[in-house]
Amino acid sequence: MNKLPSHCRRFKTVEIISVHGYVELQQAIERLFERQEIFLAWEGLDGCYECENSGNFCGFNSTRNATICSTSRPKRSHSAVILGTSIGGTAFLALVVLVLYRFRRSDSEKETQLKVERFLANYKTLNPSRYSYSDLKKITGKFRHKVGQGGYGTVYRGKLPNGIPAAVKMIENSKGNGQEFINEVATIGRIHHFNVVRLLGFCAEGTRRALVYEFMPNESLEKFIFSSKDSKTRNRPFSWEKLQQIAMGIARGMEYLHQGCNQRILHFDIKPHNILLDHNFQPKISDFGLAKLCSKERSVVSMTAARGTAGYIAPELFSRNFGAVSHKSDVFSFGMLLLEIVGCRRNIDVTVENQSQIYFPEWIYNRMSQGKEMGLEIEIDGDEEIAKKLAIVALWCIQWNPTDRPSMTMVVQMLEGDLHGLEIPPKPFASSDIEMIAT
Q1: Which residues contact 264 (CB under 8 A, 6 or more apart)?
Q2: Which residue in 46, 107, 269, 278 is the catalytic one?
Q3: Architecture of domain 123-214
Q4: What is the rounded CA–CA span in Å between residue 67 and residue 52?
Q5: Cα 185 from Cα 214, distance rounded (Å)
Q6: Is-catalytic flag, 269?
Q7: Is 284 annotated in some ligand binding site?
Q8: pLDDT tens for residues 179-208?
Q9: Which CATH superfamily is domain 222-421 in?
């Protein structure tokens, strides 16, 4: 490797490789580097040192496809790559990607750390506690007991110094510049409700971030209602009375988020996976990574893109033609979740026998509007009434027009009342081409 010219040694990072000097490759690379604010020069094997020694500056002329000696200094930026003219451009392109990735990742990580630390500096509260990474290693026994894997990281079981069981979620796949971490701490860090999972602590140490929750021994609702994919062998894990209690608990937790806090909390990711069950199978709403805060006086919130999980996202999050985004978007997600509780299946399911699709919400609406039996497993008197009530409430919640959906306060009242006080709502969706199959 040759000695660098004097003006190059002052750059932050310099890499020297050699490539063929054909004009097409050089022009494409120059355009790439201009967009990334990276200075690009070409160094030949002869002539550059003589040019530098005379007090001038060596560069590359794309028209002549040759090195030139200039009296003007090339424009500098954050890093430089000096190119020779002997071997192919593939290695060079690979190096460009690595250099760009390293600097972009490093800058992004620093910005995220500063953003998180600024938020925590303004987070004036005694609880939850802030832990160091070494604390987490002690709490989890060096991350020995893995209990779950989510979209944002891995969850480990542990025990706090006071003996309380805890779940530690290590945020590994961070998106949005640490925003999901800030959302979690900002929302559930300050609130306490029986049907909302409690945040006990957090860790923010460099690029390591984690959330410490109360431990839920029965994991998520998803584990129970989707335990069997075969509709003929699907066994209902809970009694209808217990399912009604679970639905009521989720509704009360959501009502608290919408009405009981100083600021309204919109969850935007209500689904069975995010409903945890304690030792008594009481539901706890969890995972506030997509949550958004707004004042109670505001009925509409601004959104730049849809957020949530496919199958539970309200239509207005995809297109404002359906209405404005508001707390009613969470109501839609709750309705879809409630239908899955009723059917003990995913709303879009596939039968094992012929692989035909079932869109359960439309199927259940058609059955109920025609006065037919719902084809659900009924064991004791009163079960059918509970099943119908849950289904009707769910169908009200998934109305495509947000103004036609009830608030979560009204949902709680509907669930507390009896079936006779409920009317079947208008059809909440346009007819689909999906084949309807009774089970």
Answers
A1: 257, 258, 293, 294, 295, 296, 298, 327
A2: 269
A3: 2-Layer Sandwich (3.30)
A4: 12
A5: 14
A6: yes
A7: no
A8: 778 878 877 887 889 999 999 999 988 888
A9: Transferase(Phosphotransferase) domain 1 (1.10.510.10)
